[in-house]
Each structure stands twice: as structure tokens, then as C-alpha cells.
Design goal:
three-stranded antiparallel beta sheet; flat; alpha+beta
Amino acid sequence: MRWPLLLLSLLVVPTGCAHRLRPSDLPPPTASHGHLTLAMDAFLQDPASYEKRVVRSPLLAGGISSRTPVDAPILELEAGQAPGVFNEAVQTLAGKPTEAQVVQAFGDLHAACDADHEQACQFLKEQSLPPARIQGRVTHPKERSRSFRSEYAVVIMQCRIDVDGHVRDCEVIEDGSGQPSQHLIAQLDESRYRPWTLAGHAVTTSYGFTFNLRYGGPAEDELSLEQKLGWARLRVAHFPQSGGAWANLAMQLAVHTPEDPDYPKVLAQAHALAPRFQWTATEMAWHRVQAGQYAAALMALRPVLRRSVMGEHPNPYVLETAAAAHFGLNQCTEALAEQQKAVGLLPAEWLAPERERFQRKLQDYQTACATSPAVSAATGPR
């Protein structure tokens, strides 16, 4: 079975409501670009005390998650082809399609969305329903983990949720000593899930489960920086193919020691293992922009920008990075549009120097674009 591209996910947190930021909630003025992007991601998920979660948690990134059908083929479409492909997919879904036809329609809709067909993006946003547990519960094993001589363990599994709601064929990507994954898999076997659906049609789905286990050790805010980084490095040493482990280490370095000479290599590995994860893709794109690799930066950002169109909270730092890449390619229309959106989306209470920097960059683009010819992304590199 061929698994689709995988998406990393942060620890699950509830979506918050409006919250007025306090100065103590904000990242420090000296925060790196990666830290600021991560902090904004956390704020958009839950504004309450988000910065404390970012700085204190030893499990900044949990594991791998995929909420798309197994083996969904994704085409490459030109903009002119997208409307016809979209209409054909919608017509298929309006009938009584087989599961294979639903998967094909999903791939076609994604391809049309990638080609900037707004109706396809909106259809996916409104008609895709992710899996959800409807029966059973999963409890953490009680025995202490001796994994890496740590009080913490992460269990990451990539499983399949079938149309009947059963969880099957779990592949263990990270585990703790004593194999707590087997305890968790047994409970998943007894649970039932609502399957992934598109326009009401159920489809088999590749789905990631992440369990962050703690066995009575010190609380996250009691761990020293050395302990956090040491634990993160041990994870990648023991599980070198875990995108979650590498992303966790990259995030820890971005927050605590962005000047670490290992950071670029760690980030590159995290992105290589899971190129569709928003934070690693954005940070990788930002590094490419700094190196003058503008087309490569936009390629890294492409899945992130698509998901933003599909309804996820747009992160101003993602848009800022896209604007810089477009400007580097002399695509002024796109650069100005992305930077304008980024300025408008910054919270009013955000760091004043950052709000001023975003505004200055917009003015710089406006000045430069007014005095030089530009090309459009429609004809330039994508």
C-alpha cells in the first residue's frame, strides 16, 4: 500500500475564542523568525497562554497525521483546465460513485484547488469531513517508560480508518520502552470512528495518532533547557525516520538556540520527512528566501498556501514569506497582495516592532514596484 504525503501536526489544543494578549504572553523581541512563526501558529489555535505552551512544552511537535484518502492521485493542472476538472469531479460525487471514484474526485479537486480554482478550494473546505471517534476511549498505559532514561515518551502510529469505522494496519513510527503502542493499538481496535467523507461518501483514510505520555516526571516548566534539547536529540537518535521527532528538535532549536550550527541541517531533515507540515515548510521557505532561492521557497510554501485558501487560519508569517519570494522573482502584484494581507492579519496587540517591520516591508515593496517593471506569477515560476 502506498501512503500519501504526510502532514505533521502540533499537539492537539482546543480552538480558543477572542483573547486580549498580555505582554507576558508575547514572544521576546529577540525571537527568531521560526519562533515567531511557531508562536503565531499556537496563538491562532488557542490565544490563551499560547507562548507558555511554545516555550515550556518538551513536546512541541507530536507526530504524523494524514487526513486524506489513501492513494489519492493528485494531478498537475493548468489554470485553464481547472474548471472542467472541477465540474467533472462534482458531477461524479453527485451520483453514486464507487470508493475509487470518490478518491479520484478528491485528487482532481485538490489539483483544481492547486491551480487556484477558488470553487474547488471552497468545495473541499465545505464537503470534506475528517474522521472522529464515536465509540470507545483510549487511556494511556500506566507503567513508567524507561525510553532514553526519560520521564516522557511519544507514541506515533500511522493507521488506516476504513469505511466501516475500524482502525486497522497501524504502523508504529515512535514507541516507548515496554511498547506502550501495543496497549494503545488494542484500545483503538475496540474503538469506532466516523470515516472520512467527501460530499457524504465514506472513504478509507490514512490517519496519524500521536500520544504524548508522561510518567510523573517534572512538569514541563520545570525542565531545564539542557533537558529539553537533550530529550529532543535523543528522539531523533532513536527514531531517525520520525518526522515528528525531527520537527520537535527543529522547533526547540528555533525557540531556544536558533544560532545553533545544527539548526539548518535539522530543519532540512524535518522538511524532507514531512514537506507539507506548515511550520517546517514556512521556515524552510524563509531560509531559501534568505539564500536567494525564491522559486524553491514558493515550491515549499505551495501546500501551506493551498490549505490556507481551504479555510485554515492564515498565518501572517506564511504570507510574509510568500511575499518575499514573489518579490525576489519580480512578481510585484503577488508580493504586494500577500504582504498587504499579512499586515492586516497581525493581531493589534502583537509585538510593535514586528507590526512596524511588516508595514515597512509593504512600503518597500510599493516603492520598488512603482519604479520597476514586474512579471506575474501566472507566467513566472510557480
